[in-house]
Amino acid sequence: MFSWYARCALVGLVIGITHDSATADDNVLGLPAPIDARQPGAVVLHGGGDITDEVFERFVELAGGREARIVLVPSAGYRVSDYDSEKEFLDEMGSRYCSWVDLAVAGRVRGFQFLYTDNPDDADNADFVRPLELATGVWFSGGAQKRLNYRYVGEFPRQTRFQAALVRIVERGGAVGGTSAGMAALPEIMTLRDARENSHAPAKVVAAHGLGLLKQAIVEQHLDARGGRLERFTRLLRDSSQLDELAGRKGAGNHMLGLAVEEGGALFVRGDHLEVRGTANVHVFLKSEESRKVAWHELEPGDVAELKRDSSHAIELTQEDRLSSR
Q1: The domain 11-319 belongs to what CATH superfamily?
Q2: What does each C-alpha distance from 220 to 44, 58, 59, 95, 309 come to in angstroms?
């Protein structure tokens, strides 16, 4: 296992290096439908904490391997305005995310760059969004998910150019993922923050609109490591009327499921196919249509599963063979 933030050289010189060498209803989770059914795109949910070599390399593989053009969005954790200059900001990003930068330096991917802004108007700026039009993989860092909502999400149901470009990456067979806050912002309905009447009261969710890559699921990160996550998550999952209102679709809440990831774990989603990697577990919550019952499935690293609807349209999870060791 390694941390993305490991030491690496030539940090300040490699930003932007390039090497020249259907519909969401087609799947249970509401992912963008692939242009080519043989090459479904991936959404990657990482629960926070350290990221293993295996998870990192699998993301790069799904983004295209040596042909990948990867964009990293650090906006949840870092703002240019907190630095004396843009150069100082980029030096810090290059140091913090040097393992990503080194992908391009070593020729392991075709291109890599950071994409960032403190101005929410940029989400609809064609020049700002242009790197996403060529990208095959996008990763969102951890931090505060409200910063992603504020900068990149349109006033629902309108999507910004930024959001639409992310959808097209998945449609083209690419990969979009994030860790911690970066994971939280990926669905259509996201957790913005906690709300409690007092310090002893049960945790509630202040929900908002996210980037829109999962239209039939809500997610939770740091499930095992931060108090109140399970109660706030399951409370929102069972509140079908609130989910209907947020989704703008009557009955949408009845068909939503929940995906929760522990720190160190990663869930790779391609269509209705799930695979778990990393060092921690993933939890899948399936509710009855009346939201009166919730079935809780726990998947371990190496597990592979499939989601499907039965003849009554209820969602089922079928566990398959485990991943071969790498």
Answers
A1: Class I glutamine amidotransferase (GATase) domain (3.40.50.880)
A2: 13, 21, 20, 28, 23
